[in-house]
What we know:
This protein is mainly alpha-helical.
Amino acid sequence: xxQDLRTxxxxxxxxxxxxLGRMAGxxxxxxxxxxxxxxxxxxAGSVSVGLNVLLQYVSHFLQAAGIxxxxxxxxxxxxxxxxxxQWVLVALIGYWLISFVFRLVASTLKRALWxxxxxxxxxxxxxxxxxxxxxxxxxxxxxxVLVCVCVLLGVGTGRGSNPADQTAHLEExxxxxxxxxxxxxxxxxxxx
Length: 192
């Protein structure tokens, strides 16, 4: 399975590279790749030197404090730093993709359940109205119970009814009312 994943990723990377080569030109792509490699090498070299100095200082502080034993990493290399950065980037992209898929599935399930509740409510409404053997009072009571159940299950709430949208709508209404109140106060002052 891991080999299939590697093969799929390498094919995808190859297709992306060939597409970019057709769009920007093969020479431009090679120049950008070379410049990026050089910049990455310089940055990784500088960071590795800084980490090595930091490791030496921490090691000296630990020895001065009486703690013997060093770090398992004796020297940080630019190649090792690039390797770790690549895997961290792969992990972040993987996490982002997995969270995106979970959000998509959750949203789809939420909408499907809402449609299911709406369908059941409509079928119940149809059954209540089609039952001609009962009186009007019984039909009204059944409809009232159906409306209460629909309210409790949230069947009437649509897509734009999340709390953030409702709060924003209420805030907008309060602002409009405050503006009208200020206008009325100004109008009353001008009449006095």
